[in-house]
Design brief:
This protein is α/β, with parallel strands linked by helices. It has 3 domains: 168 residues, no CATH class; 94 residues, no CATH class; 191 residues, Rossmann fold (3-Layer(aba) Sandwich), CATH 3.40.50. Helices cover 47% and strands 9% of the residues. It has 22 helices and 10 strands. The strands form 2 sheets. Strands 1-9-10-8-5-2-3-4 form an 8-stranded mixed beta sheet, with helices on both faces. A two-stranded antiparallel sheet has the order 6-7. Helix 18 links the parallel strand 2 and strand 3.
Amino acid sequence: MAVYASEKMYLNIMPLILIELLNQKSYKEVNIFARKKGYKKLSIVMERIITKPEQILSILRIYQTLNERLAYKKLNRLSNQIKKTLAKIFDKFTEKEFAQCNEKDGLTMNHLKGSLLVSTPGQAPAPKNLGLPRRIASEYSILIKDAISLLHPKPKDIQRAQLYKKILQGDFEKPFSLATTLADASKKGILLKDIWEELINSDRLDYVSLLLNFKNVLEADISKDSLKIALDKISDEKQAKILKVSPFTFLEAFLNIYNLKSFNASKVRKTIEQVVNVSMDNITFFNDKKSVIASDVSGSMYYPVYKNSKIEFFDIGLFVSMLINARVPDTIAGVFGDVWKILELPEESIPGNLKMFRRITGSVGYSVNAFKVFEWALNEKINADMFLFFTDREIWDGYGQSSDFWNLSGIQNENVMEKAWNKYKSQINPHARLFLFAFAGQSNVPLKILKNEIYLINRWSDRIFDVLEWIENRENALEKINNMVL
């Protein structure tokens, strides 16, 4: 399960938590042979999962947290098996990887709690307080040099011994940092134009960093040759697909330069528009499905998805609608307010056309009558495989009462939204699924699965497609986990 969570679900913290739980299980084995077998499996799993130096620190912090080690000697009872395996893993990493290691990348209370909070039908609600210690590794008291002192990795040669000495002394060359590089250049009086050209021409910027910094690049007025190199890099569809760049990363980059007055801004915008569709190649959830996508366009949706972001909640549903519509013919998209209105969506220049939809604000009224979508689907006998609703938090039941998505559990009186959905399921398609995205939801539960195939996804994340893929494949997950070869 830990390997599956790491390699297939791309989770960071949960696989490491599972390692410590496996360690605890092996330690409690009475049978000496079963204990040895458990420890052997533990070593194999650790060597496969830990691919960054930061994860060594996270393992130690997880041990410290789950075992409530808060005293002076926080790691004095760490399993010898974990010590031996971590010491062996040290040899995997180069000096550059250790130098780039961010020692503050690791476990926090929110990571741990968020990793364990998912509720399903028939289960008690996920606990708000897991009984974990308040003081935990978020203080980042465990550093790489501490790990060296604790684990005593044996250097295989002189070069390795010198590397471990450097770690203990903190004698590393500073790894490349864009912020540091720009600050140093400014102190030395180097023109931004020259430093951006040097970074681009030497290929020191990774794909995403370049993409999200195009506003700064254009404002620096770099040369045509450097601009061509930069445009060639981000237009590399093969690279974008390999890196699995999120569609929302392209949207953020596009909106960063949307209003920029620059001679070359239109070239960059056009390049982003051309490559954004490639980011959907890795997302197969919507293939061969008939989808109805409904977006809330009320005033409360004009709120950034995170601090300083150009993307607002308003943009998400419409952007997703256009991306899916361009790839899957059986897609109906629209907006809801007092009424439900179907939109004609463009299949090209998707980020650019997103701004056009700002004009529809108010065209459907300012209520949030989401149930109108199901009334329309019932009247028109629309046989859809799934409905996706994008809103901030609340919907209106049509009778002047607000109804939070998270109250659709059926425990209280059914609201109009739930009644309309149940009616659709019984009369049109009993296998249809309903996905409700509440971008500003207040619940601590990131995913709530209710009866009648209702999935409540709480809070915004640019990995919403990953969540949908997980829901799609969750029934086969156990079989895939059991079939994984260690």
